[in-house]
């Protein structure tokens, strides 16, 4: 059938447009020319070597990992509460409360960052990795809540009731019945939040003080043309890492959907 | 039953308390602080807690603010228009032409670039569009052009291209969801009643997809207005948008009351534009209920 062949061609072109910058990244990461332009020079892995020998970069990586692990765990814990409350219980003010929790999704990050910065400074707090975790947990929380709501939503309530009838308490029913069923959602939420935090720039830029994170380090190097090939190499590693993490997250999300027997309604968000 | 409802409410509220508390403490309280600061006076390195409307008066009287705000609104409107127009056929294709079992794979493919380093993607657009960039050096080496195309770099066009690329998945998903909700028998009914395919699209599909289009527009428009990275990296600091102005006022010039007034004013303007936009599309949004 011919239906949609024009549309298909358009969609493929659109995908190419979406992927164009990412596809260029490895090309220049392995190109020995120091200027990012065509024609290409020869193949090299020098930039990757330079990357591994860079002490500031290692520090930025350590900071980013600490921040990403902490914020993804915190955001997922908060997300579990929000998802459980919103899918299982009716309570007064539910709409506005959930709206407030989801607000960081649409609020420009610069506003969140600046507002938090002003408050932290006026409280006399020093800016460090911890203050970035505060901010990242906030922006990861809505994503975690959305992913986990899907997981909790597809739960069959009779399973929980059966556990109560068999003498389980609220907590043991949650731990023995609900938690295993939503575990794929939890893993998916952890990985998503980790990816978001690892990649987040604005909040880290304002709230990290003198501590570098990967994105703020990249930003600081962009104005030095000499550093660009190494940044391309770093970018390649980060993109590959994100794709791997997201693929695992997607795998668990789908498994969670399949486990509870619901219909798959599609990707993230 | 009443007591069961009450205990439901109590359980729900106690569960929602931690995330709600976090959002209040880390987001709502700082935003209210900004709001309070915007009515305070600026002292040297401190803030004088005295009520004043001076900050707002000077924001509104500032011609630079007018220029930058208009530019931000213009860029955001253009980016929204471009992203939504480009995204609609893709969403339509996903919903109507892709078989059900392949849909989540397509959605996954579309969202992947969105989750990979925003900063590096923005910088790569600078590289692609630059004076010696990929497009120019590519076209020159092929012999198509002799002089690099300067209209691509360091101007509003390049900011629009970069942002349209960055926010593309934001536009596709809401439209896709709206299209998925359309009852397919309505379209068949349209065809059976003798409408052409184009007329069925125009009179049935498009109106039913409008809530998704409205949602997509807002989801792109609001964050784009507040974007900081793209004007900084692509515009080379020469084409500031409102986020750059807020940052400069708050940190570089350390005038927090004025910076706060700027942030509050910008948020109000964005809110007003969004509400007007929703009101204009009220007709379509009502159909749904």
Automatic annotation (TrEMBL), chain A:
Name one matching Pfam family: BPD_transp_1
Its GO CC terms are: plasma membrane
Q: How does it sit in the membrane?
A: Multi-pass membrane protein
Which GO biological process annotations does it have? transmembrane transport
Main location group: membrane
Question: In the UniProt record, does the keyword Protein biosynthesis occur?
Answer: no
Keyword list, A-Z: Cell membrane, Membrane, Transmembrane, Transmembrane helix, Transport
Signal peptide, first to last residue: none
Q: Which InterPro entries match?
A: Bact_Polyamine_Transport, MetI-like, MetI-like_sf
Q: Which domain of life is it from?
A: Bacteria
Keyword presence, Cell membrane: yes
From which residue to which does any coiled coil extend?
none
Q: Where found, per UniProt?
A: Cell membrane
TM ranges are 12-40, 60-85, 97-123, 129-155, 176-208, 228-249
Query: The ABC transmembrane type-1 domain covers which part of the protein?
Result: 61-249
Q: What PANTHER family does the annotation carry?
A: PUTRESCINE TRANSPORT SYSTEM PERMEASE PROTEIN POTI (PTHR43848:SF2)
The family note in this entry says: Belongs to the binding-protein-dependent transport system permease family. CysTW subfamily.
Protein name (record): Spermidine/putrescine transport system permease protein
- Species name for this entry? Paracoccus halophilus
From TrEMBL, chain B:
Q: Which UniProt keywords apply?
A: Cell membrane, Membrane, Transmembrane, Transmembrane helix, Transport
Q: Which residues form the ABC transmembrane type-1 domain?
A: 69-279
Query: How is this protein positioned relative to the membrane?
Result: Multi-pass membrane protein
Task: Just give the chief location class.
Answer: membrane
- Membrane-spanning regions, if any? 20-40, 73-94, 106-131, 151-179, 200-225, 258-280
A Gene Ontology biological process in which this protein takes part is: transmembrane transport
Report the domain of life of the source organism: Bacteria
Q: Per the record, GO CC terms?
A: plasma membrane
Location within or outside the cell: Cell membrane
Which InterPro entries does the record associate with it? MetI-like, MetI-like_sf
The record ties this protein, via Pfam families, to: BPD_transp_1 (PF00528)
Q: Which family does it belong to?
A: Belongs to the binding-protein-dependent transport system permease family. CysTW subfamily.
Recorded hits in PANTHER family, A to Z, give: INNER MEMBRANE ABC TRANSPORTER PERMEASE PROTEIN YDCU-RELATED (PTHR42929:SF1), INNER MEMBRANE ABC TRANSPORTER PERMEASE PROTEIN YDCU-RELATED-RELATED (PTHR42929)
Q: What is this protein called?
A: Spermidine/putrescine ABC transporter permease
